[in-house]
Amino acid sequence: MIRLMVNGSAREVTADPETPLLYVLRNDLALTGTKFGCGLGQCGSCTVIVDGQAVRSCMLPVQAVAGQAVTTIEGLGSPERPHPLQAAFIEERAAQCGYCTPGIVMTAKAFLDRTPRPTEAQLTAALEGVLCRCGTHERVIRAVMRAASMPGGR
Predict the structure, then answer these.
(1) Fewest 10 Å CB contacts: which of 27, 41, 55, 79?
(2) pLDDT tens-digit profile of 35-62?
(3) How far apart are CA 42 and CA 56, in angstroms?
(4) Residues 6+ apart with CB under 8 A from 36
């Protein structure tokens, strides 16, 4: 039995300790917002926040996060009350297919928590490792910069 703290709730799962966190989130906890992309930690679609740090959940054994705070895209906001970062993505139409969007949002959230008033260059560098093939990079940058300027936007 592995005890986790996911999106503010204590959870217990029965899984091999070496199972990637991504699989536990999606298959055992039904948190399907976190996406499987490459499975090699290179695309960023599986990014979640663990104790304030953006991490690739496809490469992280679930045992490594036991007792740590894990936040997924579902833990940021809801359709009724989106997090300011999510609201900015909607306002800027910063998603096309949307597959990579949870990874981008979670990476941006962790970055904004550390750098509340970033420059565009800092933000571009921070998001460099999350791949999007739809070509919405300019809208993504605008959305994150918008969120950074909003009260509570982090």
Answers:
(1) 79
(2) 999 999 999 999 999 999 999 999 999 9
(3) 8
(4) 22, 26, 45, 46, 58
Radius of gyration of the chain (CA): 15
In the sheet with 9-13, reading across from the earlier edge strand, the strands are 9-13, 2-6, 69-71, 47-50, 53-56
In total, the chain counts a number of residues equal to 154
Count CB atoms within 10 A of the CB of residue 138: 10
Angle at 56 between CA 74 and CA 123, to 5 degrees: 80
Q: Kindly report, residue by residue over 91-119, the tens digit of the pLDDT.
A: 999 988 888 999 999 999 999 999 999 99
Closest CA to 22 of 103, 130, 117: 103
